[in-house]
Write a structure and sequence with these properties.
Order of helices and strands: HHHHHHHHHH
Number of helices: 10
Number of strands: 0
Structural class: mainly alpha
Shape: globular
Largest sheet: none
Radius of gyration: 18 Å
Helix content: over 70%
Distance between the termini: 42 Å
């Protein structure tokens, strides 16, 4: 792969937040943030907005999936449509999980989130038509995977002792912050993609880039599957 393509790919990876901490938990809440959330009493709109935005900007699994979603989208209205579908799904399960008390095994949910990255990269590589002879409904897939992405965070927030006083306001604020962070992160990704698309090598190296993206998804999925069996 030429040096220019490698540099472009590195820019995308860095912007997308593929910085794997030793815990490799995309939805993990830091001890400092967890302490604040558990100690908080009453509505705290600004802090929860910040925490939500921080989660999205550092949530490399979310960003990996969204990079795959917008990788071949050139028109702004298409980008808005697909990101909106993801946002709707993400918001529904985040709010339903925390406020509605819907529970699931976090390893299983996060494994599905990792698989969502594999799925979209495979889709971008034209894998469904090439190997399976059909093309799934991409809009429906983005919405469904959005539901799992939101539920992934909900499972982590459920582990915290959240005060009932101001809970609805705080969780809604957190969710709004997530969407704000999503816009900021995607803006940076779009700028990088837009620059890369002006280079002659973009289409030549799109397949290899999505193969790397798929590998990231397999790593995320495999880690969570291992955690499920080792932790049970």
């Amino acid at each position: 792969m030429p040096r220019r393509a490698i540099l472009s790919l590195l820019v995308l990876i860095l912007i997308s937040g593929f910085v794997f901490p030793s815990t490799a938990l995309a939805h993990n809440v830091s001890k400092r943030d967890a302490s604040f959330v558990q100690a908080n009493q009453g509505a705290a709109i600004a802090p929860f907005l910040y925490l939500g935005a921080k989660h999205m900007v550092t949530g490399y699994d979310h960003l990996a999936f969204l990079v795959g979603v917008i990788f071949f989208l050139y028109r702004l209205k298409d980008i808005v449509l697909y990101v909106s579908l993801f946002t709707v799904g993400h918001s529904i399960t985040l709010l339903a999980g925390v406020l509605g008390g819907i529970h699931a095994n976090s390893y299983v949910v996060d494994a599905i989130i990792g698989f969502s990255v594999v799925y979209k990269a495979f889709d971008n590589m034209d894998g469904f038509k090439r190997f399976l002879g059909f093309q799934p409904n991409t809009k429906l897939a983005v919405l469904i995977f959005g539901l799992f992405h939101g539920f992934g965070l909900a499972t982590k927030l459920q582990e915290l002792d959240l005060a009932k006083n101001g809970l609805v306001t705080n969780i809604v604020s957190f969710n709004v912050g997530v969407e704000v962070g999503q816009v900021l992160a995607l803006t940076a990704v779009l700028l990088a993609l837009s620059f890369w698309r002006t280079r002659s090598g973009f289409l030549r190296h799109a397949f290899a880039t999505n193969a790397i993206l798929m590998t990231v998804g397999f790593v995320l999925t495999g880690y969570q599957i291992a955690g499920y069996y080792l932790g049970s």
